[in-house]
């Protein structure tokens, strides 16, 4: 299985600047150990994982070391991919994290995050002074989670060379240093002593503390900020009491796919087995389940298709069901969450725009494929051709036997490559369709 992955530089419009993040589009959640393994392999400050749920995207942010409760640049990167590659007509998207719903919207080339404001309290932390190597003006904290360290000048912040071994002794996960900016309202840097990547290049989450502090200190709600790490980052912020709006730009560096490995490939291998007399009843049971989750006024017809619908024909042990729907656009809203409840995974990046495709049991989400569902409109060639091909094989047993032998041969040649297996059957399938639809040209 190929999992789409994008590499984005966030809080910048220049490559090799800002904070890099990976964005992975998953059909459903992988086990936690798999998610952490992917994030560690990516070795970027964060990997944002997205799973679509109708018009909302569920999101998780995982670093090479641990999972985050909130992540600004990971959210900005995810929204950038949604707005530019998945749903380019959208101006707003909801990201559902494990703890809250985050609203993200765009205006021209700026993407705005709506994050919770976090207030701070004054504290004395000698370890911070030792670890940073420069006595600050003030130190604050937010719930033992992050320190906010105040300096007088931008130059002091830029010149800091922290001792991470000392800062690791803090119970706080993050250390934010900040000062008034020379050409902006404020500058900052953020350190995570426990992380493999100890300085974060551009940190949205830190601005949940920074913006309330500077808004009150400067008596203004709209703030322009720079994160003065080596890569740098630029933020446009607005303080709204209990919320902080953090806006920034992003740029795509790279896109591709994750290959989920030989273990998944072996599990999803092509196997032709003798005909099983229970296949028709299994299909009938599954069709009833589908009818129970999809409104009847959306469906024109449902039929059992494919080789398991042809009595006596050896086949892959996968029940294929085809649904004729009144509207594919309507089904994209209704069918995806409905079929996910039945254990199906939806193929989001299917290049065939006339067909929606779902699979149940697809590795790595299950041990073996058991069912496929194809949703098409009544006028689609898919609807017509699958039924014509099935019916021709049923009425011509000698042709079905020829097809069976071809499938067994091709399964041996392309055991781990479904695309090649399917393409190799194409000539035979097209020949039979011509015979079925134009018998006079036999």
Write the layout of secondary structure elements.
Elements: E1 2-10, E2 19-26, H1 32-42, E3 47-53, E4 56-62, E5 67-68, H2 72-86, E6 92-96, E7 101-107, E8 110-116, E9 121-122, H3 126-132, E10 138-142, E11 146-150, H4 154-159, H5 164-167, E12 174-180, E13 186-191, E14 199-200, H6 207-218, E15 222-227, E16 233-239, E17 243-248, E18 250-259, H7 262-267, H8 279-293, E19 299-305, E20 319-325, H9 328-340, E21 344-346, E22 356-360, E23 371-376, H10 381-395, H11 397-413, H12 418-437
Parallel strand pairs: 2-3, 4-6, 11-12, 13-15, 20-23
Antiparallel strand pairs: 1-2, 1-18, 3-4, 4-5, 6-7, 7-8, 8-17, 9-10, 10-11, 12-13, 13-14, 15-16, 16-17, 19-20, 21-22, 22-23
Helix pairs in contact: 10-11, 10-12, 11-12
Name some characteristics of this structure.
alpha+beta; Diaminopimelate Epimerase, Chain A, domain 1; 12 helices; 3 domains; elongated; 5-stranded mixed beta sheet; 442 residues; 18-stranded mixed beta sheet; 32% helix; Beta Polymerase, domain 2
Structural notes for this entry:
Strand 15 and strand 16 (about 235-240) form a beta hairpin. The chain is elongated and about 90 Å long. It has an 18-stranded mixed beta sheet that branches. The protein has a five-stranded mixed beta sheet with strand order 19-20-23-22-21, with helices on both faces. It is built from twelve helices and 23 strands. About 30% of the residues lie in helices and about 30% in strands. The protein folds into three domains: about 1-110 and about 250-260, Diaminopimelate Epimerase, Chain A, domain 1 (Roll), CATH 3.10.310.10; about 120-240, Diaminopimelate Epimerase, Chain A, domain 1 (Roll), CATH 3.10.310.10; about 270-440, Beta Polymerase, domain 2, CATH 3.30.460. The two termini are about 40 Å apart. It has about 450 residues and is of the alpha+beta class. The mean pLDDT is about 95.
């Amino acid at each position: 299985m190929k999992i789409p992955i994008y590499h984005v530089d966030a809080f910048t419009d220049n490559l090799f600047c800002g904070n890099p993040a990976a964005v992975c589009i998953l059909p459903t959640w992988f086990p936690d150990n798999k998610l952490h393994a992917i994030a560690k392999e990516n070795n970027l400050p964060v990997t944002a994982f997205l799973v679509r749920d109708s018009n909302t995207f569920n999101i998780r942010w995982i670093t090479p070391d641990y999972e985050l409760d909130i992540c600004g640049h990971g959210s900005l990167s995810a929204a950038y991919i949604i707005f530019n590659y998945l749903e380019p007509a959208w101006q707003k998207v909801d990201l559902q994290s494990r703890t809250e719903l985050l609203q993200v919207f765009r205006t021209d080339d700026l993407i705005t995050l709506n994050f919770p404001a976090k207030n701070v309290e004054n504290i004395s932390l000698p370890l911070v002074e030792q670890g940073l190597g420069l006595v600050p003006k003030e130190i604050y904290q937010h719930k033992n989670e992050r320190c906010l360290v105040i300096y007088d000048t931008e130059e002091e912040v830029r010149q800091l060379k922290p001792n991470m071994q000392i800062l690791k002794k803090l119970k706080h996960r993050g250390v934010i240093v900040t000062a008034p900016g020379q050409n902006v309202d404020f500058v900052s840097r953020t350190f995570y002593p426990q992380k493999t990547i100890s300085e974060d290049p551009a940190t949205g989450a830190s601005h949940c503390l920074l913006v309330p502090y500077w808004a009150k200190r400067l008596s203004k709600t709209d703030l322009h900020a720079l994160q003065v790490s080596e890569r740098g980052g630029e933020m446009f912020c607005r303080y709204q009491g209990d919320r902080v709006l953090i806006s920034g730009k992003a740029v795509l560096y790279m896109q591709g796919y994750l290959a989920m490995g030989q273990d998944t490939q072996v599990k999803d291998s092509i196997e032709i087995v003798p005909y099983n007399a229970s296949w028709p009843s299994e299909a009938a049971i599954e069709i009833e389940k589908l009818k129970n989750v999809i409104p009847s006024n959306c469906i024109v017809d449902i039929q059992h298709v494919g080789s398991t619908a042809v009595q006596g024909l050896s086949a892959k042990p996968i029940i294929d069901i085809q649904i004729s729907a009144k509207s594919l656009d309507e089904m994209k809203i209704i069918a995806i969450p409905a079929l996910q409840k039945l254990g199906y995974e939806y193929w989001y990046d299917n290049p065939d725009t006339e067909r929606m495709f779902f699979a149940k049991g697809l590795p790595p989400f299950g041990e073996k494929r058991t069912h496929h569902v194809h949703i098409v409109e009544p006028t689609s060639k898919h609807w017509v051709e699958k039924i014509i091909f099935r019916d021709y094989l049923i009425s011509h047993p000698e042709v079905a036997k020829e097809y069976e032998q071809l499938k067994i041969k091709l399964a041996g040649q392309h055991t781990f490559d479904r695309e090649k297996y399917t393409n190799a059957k194409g000539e035979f399938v097209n020949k039979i369709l011509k015979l079925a639809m134009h018998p006079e040209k036999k």
